[in-house]
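Lecture 7, part B: from sequences to assemblies.

Below are the input chains for today's worked example.
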Amino acid sequence: MSTSPAPARRPHWPHCRRGADPTTDPVGCCGIHVPGYTTCLAHLDDRGRNTYLASLTPGADIDHRGTPFTQNLLQSLLRSLRDPTTGKPHLGKAWFSRATFTGPAHFDGARFAGGALFHEATFTHDARFDSVTFSDHAEFGGGDLHGRRHVQRGDVREGRRVPRGEVRQ
Ligand SMILES: [Zn+2]
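Predicted structure of the full complex, as structure tokens:
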């Protein structure tokens, strides 16, 4: 299993470039810039990351395309989006295209109020979407899946576009 999260293809968004090397890896980290910064969420320093996470409110739109997530980083992000009335993460539009999830990626109970975009996302371990609510469409497909993609009570399949309302809690 590869430990390098950086695909070689240059993304079309302003990206982090951490680890770029003119000969071996001209693209570097593909993570999109966190708003107001020039690195992705994974490579933001602790202060910047804490500031960003503290700025999030339940239902916020998030854009972390290309970002290499560890299990801890994903949990920190989802914790910052937790709806106090349900105790579950509440996301607006969520862009995770070409993101890499190292370790288990558990979105259990999350509510995606906007589109949930996971094109070409890579999951090194299990991806769990138990009891997830997609109020808009969810798009998966094209990435690497080393673990199981586990969706209960839903209907999300590889490469399939899920129309609004099809997946319910
Ligand atoms: Zn980065």
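Note for the exam: Residues 16, 18, 29, 31, 39-40, 42-43 surround zinc ion (CB under 6 Å). Keep this in mind when comparing with the next example.
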